[in-house]
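Form 12-C: Joint structure prediction
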Amino acid sequence: MSDLTQLTLEAALAGLKSKDFSSVEITKAHIEACEKGAKLNAFITTDYDNALKSAEASDARLAKGEGGNLEGAPLGMKDLFCTENVRTTAGSKILGDFKPQYESTISAQMKSDGMVMLGKLNLDEFAMGSANETSHFGSVINPWKAEDGIDLVPGGSSGGSATAVAANMCLGATATDTGGSIRQPASFTGTTGIKPTYGRCSRWGVVAFASSLDQAGPITRTVKDAAIMLQSMAGYDVKDSTSLNVAVPDFAAACDNGVKGLRIGIPKEYTMDGMPAEIETLWQQGIKWLQDAGAEIVNVSLPHTKYALPAYYIVAPAEASSNLARYDGMRYGNRVDGENLYDTYERSRAEGFGEEVRRRIMIGTYVLSAGYYDAYYLQAQKVRTRIAEDFNAAWEKCDALLTPTCPSAAFAVGRKIDDPVTMYLNDIFTVTANLAGLPAMSVPVSLDKDGLPLGLQIIGRALDEETVFAASAALEKAANFTAKPKKWWA
Amino acid sequence: MFTAERVADKKDWLTGNDGEWEVIIGLEIHAQVASKSKLFSGAATEYGAEPNTQVSLVDAAMPGMLPVVNEFCIEQAVRTGLGINAKINLFSRFDRKNYFYPDLPQGYQISQFEFPIVGEGEIEIEPEGSEAVMVGIERLHLEQDAGKSIHDLSPNETYVDLNRSGVCLMEIVSKPDMRTPEEASAYVEKIRSIVRALGTCNGDMEKGNLRADVNVSVRRPGGPLGTRCELKNINSMRFIRQAINYEARRQIDIVEAGGEVDQETRLFDNAKGETRTMRSKEDAHDYRYFPDPDLLPTKITQEYVDAIKATLPELPDARRARFVEEYGIPVYDAGILTADKAKGDFYERLVKGHDAKIAANWMMGDLFGALNKKSIDLDDSPVNSDALGGLLDLIADKTISGKIAKGVFEKMFAGEGSADEIVERDGLKQVTDMGAIEKMVQDVIDANADQAAKVADNPRLIGFFVGQVMKASQGKANPQAVNEILKKKLGL
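Section 2 - Result
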């Protein structure tokens, strides 16, 4: 039998359905790949026993001709999703051995659709980071390497998800994106990732980073795979007041819609000083591909783009500083007893949170403080409104936007960790979609001069994932990106 | 933000060593919404449950949990807003108030800071012994209650009960429009009667579902406002008055001694009748309010408000006016009988087919007296309106006297049966047989011949004879008949 870990999710589901192989077989193949890939540190917690039990149950359903949208497919779960009786860490020490008594809406939907969950994937602590270097459980290593052989970061915060998918350790993985945490790691690892419209997926049971920006989505190896996974993840949830009560379209079908007649906008502001020339070149190539596929190219302007990153780094830490207040050592997770109540709070939080999380809590606390609220938080919210208006103006002229996903390819582990501002610049092309709540997808299209993958980003109108999938699929088809990392870890 | 235009009546001024002062009072009332479930979770709110048995994952702030607003609570806030003649805001928003404390699991309280659901309003209060006063309402907003920290179960540990965590409160903020302790307690009483009539809050201060924080400052009559202190932990009308009296004197003493009042939060110690510093201004938290990103702004329509308005019950003021008009009872009686819905409803059932004033007297006297003594709610009264009506019937048709009726009532209250049953059982029917009464009268006169001889000189002695006859009849003789026969026989 050929290597079952090389399949796309789409092909694996088809194979399972036609009983070419069983869920137990494909699950075992992936468990083996996970074990061989341990040095990539993609998983925080593996759950192979339960995975095999799920696989058996899936096989029983498949044998009866039953089964859901993901029946029998071994997938990974970012460790930000609460999973019943399976340790959930958010990449932090402060949660200790926390085992939720509940299942997040998204993982529950995926389970009821037949997912086989291999385990919980590593991430930046509380999803704060762009290199997966802030995890209490250690950095995740990118399966891709340049000629020099130096370990590279997989991007963040969904670095475990991206690495696991790129290294064929699972058929697809859940991820979350607050400022680019799905798309940037996808770009760094040659994988595909979509952050859907804010409110498309329920946040219930997903450990919160910045509530108004957080949105879950999949990281997969193809655009179609992302559509299949998102189909199971999306949907209205009465338990999340910000989830949208709208019908979920057929995302997989939308992948075949093509771009003929679509107007693709090219925002002139999506460029940055010091950005490698090849990213600019790649962008031009993307434009040509879409044009050749029948799209109309339109130049647009999103004039407030330059304010997006600063606004993001006010709004996100502000919300985080409040969202993370519940980790106080009182009810669950790590507690370090002190001399009195406040000493206990301080010790528990100082020891439980890593440096980046502490930095953002402090930034967030500062920008919400009396006397600074108007100058920072309120101002940032105004910028947010302007950015949304920019997009609305653009939608008058076009149906989707094409931009680079990131200003660089993957970089070496440790290179930027001591320079937060440089690290934050990773998000420069991705945060705008979060601030405006728009769906956006990164598609791998090419390798750079060092042999590292690069992605392009499609941004769509709110709730118009269908166009995003159509344009991304067209891009994927034209780029025909088939490169794979050398399997140095196994 | 606040101005205080009204100057207190001279009679209400406080005299210091150095001239006159007036007290400026504003109140923040926390009224627990009478909702079976919490503001943002489905957990129950029942009073008196075992600790930590009414706590959802949301209330305990487990990771990834999200609040979903309980629409019933929104409706109750709108109802209450309409009941206090206030502006209903069609746009309101929940904000987070951030601070750390073990009984606040989220590390923030969800409240409404910038955009409350109810804006300015106004109610009329009737402080005892003074004229009616209008008190302005600044706002009403919804917020979550915190849990309860219990410090006295262990010398070194604090226990936390999260049953109350997330329970919905309405915070009703008055303008600083009150000038005497009596006005302050009359205001609380009025708010209490309104929310009870509306059914939006049970108003039980002992169970803590209506609590008041009092802001007190003093100034020279009509002069510039002084620095205010906020008094917390006051759970009865009497303590409200006591705390204000104490605090006003304390502030006057400070200012007259050349000092300055510190703006601070003070705790009322009801055992000592004093207030003491709880939190100084320096310790004040920076709450870092910001809009709760887990919740969308609350947008309601005028149609929704109008629909609620159409279902509002008659409020205490209107009902009181109607009682005076319709039943002809005194304003004072009407005020007591409309103080809450249960009383008004009881009275209206009782008054049917009975004398309005007698019905009122029986309720306010014997019934309320007996209930108070046993601390029983009117709703749980062992004598309901039909039973009391049965007793009034026996008085009205002269089966028993009013005096005998009091004894019958006590037995009814003790659960011994209906008025008819008790009167029958104890043989309490009034003796109206003139022959029998005449015989009793003659027996008493015969037995007291010397006194009878003095009656002509001292007509007041007749009272002695009435008493003797009633005693002989065990109270059952018709007193009027006894009187008439005595007068005739004694030649008066």
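Section 3 - Comments
The longest helix of chain A spans residues 374-395. Residues 4-253 of chain A form a domain with the Amidase signature (AS) enzymes fold (CATH 3.90.1300.10).
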